[in-house]
Amino acid sequence: MTVRSSTRRGRWVSAMALGALLAYGIWWYFGSSEAAAPSYRSAPLERGDVVVTVSATGSLTALSTVDIGSQVSGQVLEVNADFNDHVLKDQVIARIDPANFQARVTQARADLASAQAGLQEAQANLRNAEADYTRKTELVARQLVSRSELDVSLAARDQARARVSSARASIQQRQAALANAELDLTYTEIRAPVDGVVLLRQVEPGQTVAASFQTPVLFQIAEDLKKMQIELSVDESDVGQIRQGQPVEFGVDAFPGRQFRGNVRQVRLAATNTQNVITYPVVIDVSNADLSLLPGMTANAAIEVAKKRDVWRVPNAALRFKPAAAAESQNSRRPRIDPQRIVATMALSAVQREAFDADAAAAAERMAQRRAQGGGRPAGGDGVSAGRPGPEQIAQRILAGYGSFRDTLSPEQRQAFDQAVVEQLSARWVDLWTEADPEPTPIRVQVGISDATHTEVIGEELAEGLTIITGVQRQRG
Q: To 5 degrees, how large is the angle CA 428–CA 430–CA 435?
């Protein structure tokens, strides 16, 4: 009886110990996992360039491509230019059989000679008619001939004069016919209208050219391939950012490791609708000094629409991160605009600087009075709440307060100052998070331009050495 009790007691103690050990293991596993602080991915705050680009594709073409045809019909006797040949202006690149046109020239010259002989005959008849009329006039005066004979002589003289005019007109007509025949004869020699390179040849010796209804294209010549252009198709959502003179980088499949450069020359207004997608042609000027680029190549281009050099920038992921248990930032209101930061980038004269300091002091005094009287929050709040003016209305008030300073600026300086004020008021503000003990700490910053990897940030708390959280490390288990 005693042995059984001891055995049962031992089993019960073992079961209790095993249960306690299991409970401790469960508590250790789940409790320690919950208590463990999350591990963050981070990146250092750095200074660098941020470049905003618009991507588009297009084809390389020569600045000027000339289609050369024939203005006369006939059989081609010679072809003196081939693909890729360099030709000079007025160089004969093909000939059409001139026999028929030479015969027309000969016929026209004979017709002209005949007309000139007819003129000489008409002039001789005119001289005889005028002499006869003069004699009849004297005889009528002496009453030796009748008046009717004088009238007949007068009519003969007038007819002779008309025949001379007709002969002269016939000569002009024959001269025009001869000039036309000679011109057609010159057209049998097809000449290059410009210096350039033959891109296309569509004629062979012995071929018959028919130019009666439509001028056939025999050659295509590209003028000066050292200067080319790209016609890009840019989406309507991006075309508003493109301006003349903006730099462009592009690549072609023929040279995968090489980047070429150009500049925007023109944004054309002729929109193209392809399956309800609207695009606009943008023309890029390209230098091709080494002739490596060829007409027809497909160019993948990036147009630089904005660039900031040596600014604070963070990875784009940092703007999307927010701790799971983070409350709304206490500094949720947008900071006031900083005119000092705007004018720091402007080259002001002493008079302009004095006017700015006076207006800035007056603005600070008005702000202090407003705060003392318990007025609303200062200009530069987060958007438009009920009864509050928006950024545009606030910008107008601020600019009015700096009226004396703005009167001293040139039109270009005034436009830059006004635009900077509006941009500051309309800017987006976010919290960046830095690792701190025990919880991440937010830093309120203004967001600038953004490219594919980084975003410009502006803030008074930004400094060298800050580490910005970009995400949470995934737990492996």
A: 160
Mean pLDDT for the chain? 85
Fold of 98-187: Helix Hairpins (1.10.287)
Residue 259, Cβ density class (10 Å: 0-12 exposed, 13-18 middle, ≥19 buried): exposed
Q: Which residue has the tokens 């925007």?
A: 264
Burial of 229 by CB count in 10 Å (0-12 exposed, 13-18 middle, 19+ buried)?
buried
The pLDDT of residue 3 is above 60: no
Structure tokens at 139: 């005889």
Query: Using one digit for the tens of pLDDT, what is the confidence trace for 450-472?
Result: 888 999 998 888 888 888 988 88
Taking only the tens place, the pLDDT of each residue in 45-55 is 999 999 999 99
Q: How many residues are there in the chain?
A: 477
Per-domain residue ranges for the chain?
98-187, 312-472
Angle at 274 between CA 271 and CA 278, to 5 degrees: 40
- 3-state percent helix, strand, coil for the chain, nearest multiple of 5: 40, 30, 30
Q: What is the DSSP string of 240-284?
A: GG--TT-EEEEEETTSTT--EEEEEEEE----EEETTEEEEEEEE
